[in-house]
Design goal:
Layout (H helix, E strand, L loop, with lengths): L7 H5 L9 E4 L10 E4 L7 H4 L2 H7 L4 E4 L15 H14 L5 E5 L1 H10 L6 E5 L6 H10 L1 H4 L12 H4 L6 H9 L6 H9 L12 E5 L8 H10 L5 E2 L14 H13 L4
Parallel strand pairs: 2-3, 2-4, 4-5, 5-6, 6-7
Antiparallel strand pairs: 1-3
Helix pairs in contact: 4-5
């Protein structure tokens, strides 16, 4: 049975209801595998996983879902959303699934998943190119993209360019098209990300996988290693890939690694 941990803040200051977009890919022959819930990072919507990963996971018999956090994609607007509200969205969607889910977060969505794991007893957790904030990530962003990063420090939008997000293996036209679809997170959530409040430990101690690229132009390799160490592991690395691994030219490699890991850990 799926349970949730209810905090005092959840009762005293409930998160406002909002429409949540969820995209789904269903296996032709279900094999009893747990559902996957993909959580995109700031500015991305469920479309980022619907492009490749949802159908690919379903082709390997995993029911696959992707949620757009409030204010993103096709979900309802939420200009004052907090990280707590984003985590609430993930927990609510996960709790609505028919089986205990595996939570997969990308970028800042990985931090949202980390907070959700403290409230939802997931079958497993996967953090893809996790952005947990802090000065090392901010420093890299300022060096690589000062014009797009500085506005976020004063409540403006964080703008990532296509060369921060993708490897040069992805054709320039595709990289620009994907980058042009990005929206923005709320300024409050962006500021909370920069302040870097560490997530609480996951409920039930689920197996955890952290993966990314040493060539990521958003997440420093040192930050990737620290995040993996937080969960008692080393990161699984994919050299040559960009930050948006689910959309990059070699998108099959990380999703197959995730699914192989889940099968090896017998998350049924």
């Amino acid at each position: 049975m799926t349970t949730r941990v209810l905090r005092v803040a959840d009762r005293a200051r409930p998160v406002p209801a909002v429409f949540r977009e969820v995209r789904v890919a269903t296996p032709e022959a279900p094999e009893g595998r747990p559902p996957l819930l993909f959580v995109p990072g700031f500015g991305h919507g469920a479309w980022a996983f619907a492009e490749h990963w949802l159908e690919h996971a379903a082709s390997r018999a995993f029911p696959a879902h992707a949620v757009s956090l409030r204010g993103h994609g096709g979900s309802g607007q939420a200009p004052k959303a907090t990280l707590r509200a984003y985590a609430h969205d993930v927990v609510q969607v996960a709790a609505s699934l028919d089986r205990q889910a595996v939570l997969v977060g990308h970028g800042a969505g990985a931090l949202v998943v980390a907070h959700a794991l403290a409230r939802y007893p997931a079958r497993a957790g996967v953090l893809v190119a996790p952005v947990f904030g802090g000065w090392s990530t901010l420093g890299l962003a300022l060096r690589r993209n000062p014009a797009g990063t500085l506005p976020a420090l004063v409540g403006g939008p964080l703008r990532l360019n296509h060369r921060q997000l993708f490897s040069r293996e992805l054709p320039d036209a595709a990289a620009r098209e994907y980058a042009g679809r990005l929206g923005r997170a709320s300024s409050r959530a962006q500021w909370q990300l920069l302040r870097h409040r560490a997530p609480e430990p996951p409920v039930g101690n689920p197996p955890m996988l952290v993966l990314g690229s040493p060539d990521d132009r958003v997440v420093p390799a040192s930050a990737l290693t620290r995040t993996a160490a937080r969960y008692g592991a080393a990161p699984l690395l994919f050299p040559g890939m960009g930050h948006d691994m689910m959309l990059d030219a070699r998108w099959r490699e990380p999703i197959d690694a995730i699914l192989d890991w889940l099968e090896k850990n017998e998350t049924r």
